[in-house]
Amino acid sequence: MKERLYEILNEEKIHEIIPFLKELSIEERKTLVPSIKKMDREISKIVMTKNSYHTAGSVNQHSIIDIASFVCMDKKNFGKNYWSLFRNAEQTDQILEWGCPEWFSDFINESVEAEFTAFSYKDILGWTEKGYVQPKPELLGHHLSNYPAELDRHPETLNTHFWYLCEYPSKSLPFRKEWFPIVQKLITEKKIERKRFLKECLLASNRNFNKNVTGWFMDAFTSLKPTEEELSELQDELLAGLASSQSKAVNTILSHLKKIVGVHDFKNEEFSHYLPNLLSSEVKTVVVSSLVLTEKIFQRKKIDPEMLGMALSTAFVSKDDGIQSKAAKIILKYIPASENMRGALSHYSDNILTNVRPLLIKYIEETQPELVAIASEKLSLTTGENAVKVLHNFEDLMFYLPVAIDDPYSQHCDIALTGFIRFAGDVNAESVKLIEPVFLKACKTIAKWEVPYLNVLLCNAIINYGLDLLEKYPIQLKNLEKIYHKTKEEEAARESYSNYQKKLGPIENVGADCPARIAFKELAIYANEKIKSGDKIPLLFPVTHAPCWISPVTLVERLESYQNNNIEPHHLDIQLALQRCALDNTSEAIIEAEKRLKGECKELLLFFFGKNDKPEGKFEHPSWWMTAGITRSPETVFEEFSSFGYDDIPVEFFSGAYKWKTIDNKKNSYYPVELKIVIPKYHLAKRKEPLFVEYFIAEQKELIEIPALMLCFPNTPANALAKVIKHCLFFSGIAEVYERSLVLNTANALYQIKKPLDEIGYLFLGTIFLDSDKTIRGTAAEIWLEHVSSQMMDNVWLGRVIGLHEKLEWAPVKRLTDIMQHHMLNVSKNHNIALEELISNILLQMEAPVTNLKKILEIYHEVLALNHSEAHQEIIVKLNSWKENSSLKKICSLLLKK
């Protein structure tokens, strides 16, 4: 059988595959499955040519395997191939006539989860008629959505299946433009019931459809122009739709409720139950529409005012001046100042804006409670709270290695490496069994296509260590050989790809396709040699405190170990250690260095820790001194280092002072304003003592690793931030998942570092305050809040960056004002003072009024009132000019009165 199948495949006899399979029994077909899988792997191998690539098999060979797979395999083995076999409908029907698998119906029913299928609603009806498929409502609704044709051909299509479409639509329904006119025609011809369809449209608001599908049903409902009588009859469904998570649904329903607010049976009480959630919405249009509807109810109905009034107080969750003013006017006009109303508003008293408070004098205390100032504490980079875990024995190491594999770009990898060097030799015939699950996890991880580079190095070290133990303990570790053999086979299959980087074998042979990876590979080789030789002197670079810091005292202690054993540190190991050293408190480390160290190491650390203003002593290792100088004082050029031979490296990479500007980009109409930052080109130079930073500033293969690599330079993150700015933040609206993820990870890394920012740090922070991603903007606010609390924030610098961007409208101002209102305003007295300074410096950069400048000025007015301050004199000049603008006249006048 196998030979015959190989013959049909190799000679491409596609006409013979079905007769051949027909002759086989069910058991014979099952025995062919392994052979079919093997043949499929062979014909699916990628063949690279000079300009393209293709699979090893021909079209006919793929068809032969598709047919054999369908007939011989069960559903699990066949997988979710909803495409290849079904392209030839005639051929599929021939197979189903004599060999319809018992799993076929379930298989077709599950196709609603597929991105693409080569069969349609029409095919499903045919298969149902012949008994091959017992269709579920989800299947019929999904596929009918994609088949807006021949609806009169089968009676059940309009009688039953159309209503399944309403309940279980395909995601592509909104993009089938034919459906709108078809539905309107069917309703006109009374082939589908109008009232039932209107009801289904409203029910769609709470069926967890995506926003496009929900929007389609809302548009369909509106396009049918429901009458006042129909809307009144559908009140229950309309009101239930107000709980929808989709703002399009809520806004549509609110607009229709306004049309019937005057009818005698309008359900005021039911509406009041939904009002608090509506007024708490983050979508301004929903809040405004809800207030308008509430006011209409008061105007047209005789109701108990407290019923809606209590709910109306929720509007003061928003810090928007327009919303609060509108809510206050409704309360003032229609709701008495009862105890219940005062109690309801008291919950939001702290949130009510200063210019709105006078309107509500009968309901709340006129003066706002004074915020307390937060006692600022200087953040310490190395405390007991962020000290990393210490491993105590071989068992600890084995249990911890999987943690490091799961998160290689964190302190976990450093902890694991430290433990490896200390305890790799502490193994016996009993404890050695603990390596097997770790070895298996390392093999599974390294076998993936996309593996973070530090994971490759760590897993490679674990695998090689496991293979060494296998030679010593062959009985206990007999499974390791089988695990490794399978992993090696998988890699061998991939090595035919020209871009594949080797991962298995001696660590010296592991691929490294960019300078940063070369540096880490060199460190990995050095660490591996220590593990193999049993050298337990610790590496210098592993962190002692999360996320990336080394205690200066620990650095002294580690260097003392090398000094006592007369061993010279590895040049990259000591540089990385210096780069990661916490320099916020070095007094104790200076005392220890003077006591414990001698020679060059002593002089190096006394300079690095700030005891000596200038470098002194013998400069036997220029790379050590240069790294210490850059890390300690990046803006300083030390004349003593002028002969080291690093003059060919552009000075920006040392100082972090990159040139940047926000420019009007005439070439791009969609993104007319561009942020440009100039990063000099640099190629790794061949030199005796390269700097660690050189490997990082040279061209990178993968930008995605930059946030993690930034933790190698926590004292000087400007080079990393500049790269992310250049590649991901040049326009304000970049919404690609890759760029968004990279910016968010970089922002999180900057938040974790907890150091005062330099100029590029402020450029990055100011720019992400205007990012299109809400989570990224939230992270920017968190950085600001913490830095203000710790007195590390320069709001003049930050305000300048944001002002220069928004002066040219680099991004919508609303992004900034939303984050100010919801995250930065009224946190504490300190933060209000800082926010005033920030907004002042933003406004100082402004010239002509920009879109939504009014909103910034409203927040400025509020924060001045909270701080009992007056507008900056230079801003007063601008306000006198801006008040000529009709939309700014009112707010400018209010600010000029202060």
TrEMBL record:
Protein name (Swiss-Prot/TrEMBL): Uncharacterized protein
Domain DUF7824, chain residue ranges per copy: 385-650
InterPro entries the UniProt entry points to: ARM-type_fold, DUF6493, DUF7824, DUF7825
Domain DUF7825: 655-897
Alphabetized SUPFAM superfamilies for the sequence: ARM repeat
Originating species: Chryseobacterium sediminis
Pfam family, one: DUF6493
Signal peptide: none
Domain DUF6493 positions: 2-285
